[in-house]
């Protein structure tokens, strides 16, 4: 059984150590001696701020920064929304997959016959057209708001509730191209795709 302290420890690892490791890999913080944010305080500001307010304004995010000990203006937050920050957050997201958060096995007899029951799902998130070179969209009947999209594919184990796979790719990519669809499964497992959705 996963406990609150275990979840807290995993979150702390992702939002601090993983953020600093991503910083070292990407050389995100150019002049650490002069930077208001470290990689970890920036990641904490953005992740915790958006968890608290999914449609957070830059003013709300500056308040989130204050909670982690960084006194910055809303404008300073706005200036952090760059491709470099997106790359940093993607590295941290990838690192988060190393922390398996699961619960006790389910008591549904038909599922207990297997060592794992994996389901796949995907969501397509429409992005600003300016990101089309990074994440290609599907196009559409209108010239705007169709050029860029991100497809997020996940794999869940129904026996434990654990997130066991994650893919980020172009919105136009077929679900069949997602790595989670082709990942090797433990012996005795069963896999089933589910329907995709769009945000």
List the helices and strands and how they pair.
Blueprint: H1 4-26, H2 39-52, H3 58-67, H4 74-79, H5 83-96, E1 116-127, E2 148-157, E3 162-170, E4 189-198
Parallel strand pairs: 1-4
Antiparallel strand pairs: 1-2, 2-3
Summarize the structure in words.
The chain has helices at 4-26, 39-52, 58-67, 74-79, 83-96; strands at residues 116-127, 148-157, 162-170, 189-198. It has 199 residues and is of the alpha+beta class. The chain folds into 2 domains: 4-96, no CATH class; 116-198, no CATH class. It has a 4-stranded mixed beta sheet with strand order 3-2-1-4, with no helix packed on it. Helix 1 (4-26) crosses helix 2 (39-52).
**Strand order of the main beta sheet, please?**
3-2-1-4
Alpha carbon gyration radius? 19 Å
Number of helices: 5
> Strand fraction band?
15-25%
Shape: globular
């Amino acid at each position: 059984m996963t406990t609150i302290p275990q979840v807290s420890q995993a979150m702390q690892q992702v939002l601090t150590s993983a953020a600093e490791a991503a910083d070292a890999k990407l050389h995100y913080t150019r002049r650490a001696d002069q930077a208001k944010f470290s990689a970890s305080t920036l990641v904490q500001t953005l992740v915790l701020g958006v968890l608290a307010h999914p449609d957070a304004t830059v003013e709300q995010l500056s308040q989130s920064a204050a909670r982690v000990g960084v006194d910055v203006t809303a404008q300073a937050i706005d200036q952090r929304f760059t491709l470099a920050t997106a790359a940093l957050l993607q590295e941290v997201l990838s690192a988060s997959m190393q922390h398996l958060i699961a619960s006790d096995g389910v008591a549904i007899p038909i599922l207990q016959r297997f060592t794992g029951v994996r389901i796949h799902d995907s969501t397509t998130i429409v992005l600003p057209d300016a990101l089309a070179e990074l994440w290609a969209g599907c196009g559409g009947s209108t010239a705007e708001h169709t050029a860029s999209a991100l497809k997020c594919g996940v794999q869940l184990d129904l026996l434990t509730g654990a997130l066991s796979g994650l893919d980020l790719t172009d919105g136009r990519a077929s679900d069949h191209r997602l790595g989670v669809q082709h990942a090797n499964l433990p012996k005795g497992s069963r896999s089933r795709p589910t329907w995709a959705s769009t945000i």
